[in-house]
C-alpha cells in the first residue's frame, strides 16, 4: 500500500480580535488536491481588536449580515485560489429560522451561478456575539489539475 503525503496548515486571515482565538481556515493538501475547511464566518468587523466590543457589520439586518459573511468567505477562498464553485459543503447557523428564504436568496445571489453545494441550515439560540444573526461554515476542494 502506497502512503500518500498529507500536510495541514492552519491559517488566520483575521486582522482583529479573532486572530489569537482560532484559525479561520485549515488547509489540507494531498496528492495534488487542496481541501479548505473554513470556520464559521459571520459579519463581525475583521479589523475589530477587542473581543468585548466586537462590531457587527449589518447590525440587526439578517440580509446584510449574510451578504457580509459571503463576501468574507469569497475573500478567504480567493486567498487560496478557490471560489464558491469549489465549495462541497456548507452549514449555516442562524438565530431565527424564519430567515431561511432570505438566506437562500442571498446565497443564490452570492453563488453567481455556481451550483448550490450540499447544505445544512441550523437554528441556534445565539452565536459568539449576541448581535450576530448568521454564521456560515464552508468546505471546499481545489484540484491542482484544473484546466
List the helices and strands and how they pair.
Layout: E1 6-11, E2 25-30, E3 33-41, H1 62-79, E4 87-94, H2 100-111, E5 119-123, E6 134-143
Parallel strand pairs: 4-5
Antiparallel strand pairs: 1-2, 2-3, 3-6, 4-6
Over the alpha carbons, how many angstroms does the gyration radius reach?
Answer: 16 Å
Write down the secondary-structure element order.
Answer: EEEHEHEE
Number of helices: 2
Helix content: 10-25%
Overall number of strands:
6
Going by helix content, strand content and strand pairing, the class is: alpha+beta
Outline type: globular
Structure explained in plain terms:
The protein is an alpha+beta fold and 147 residues long. It is built from two helices and six strands, in the order βββαβαββ. Strands 1-2-3-6-4-5 form a six-stranded mixed β-sheet. α1 packs parallel to α2. The longest helix is centred in the middle third of the chain and has 18 residues. It is globular and about 50 Å long. The mean pLDDT is 88.
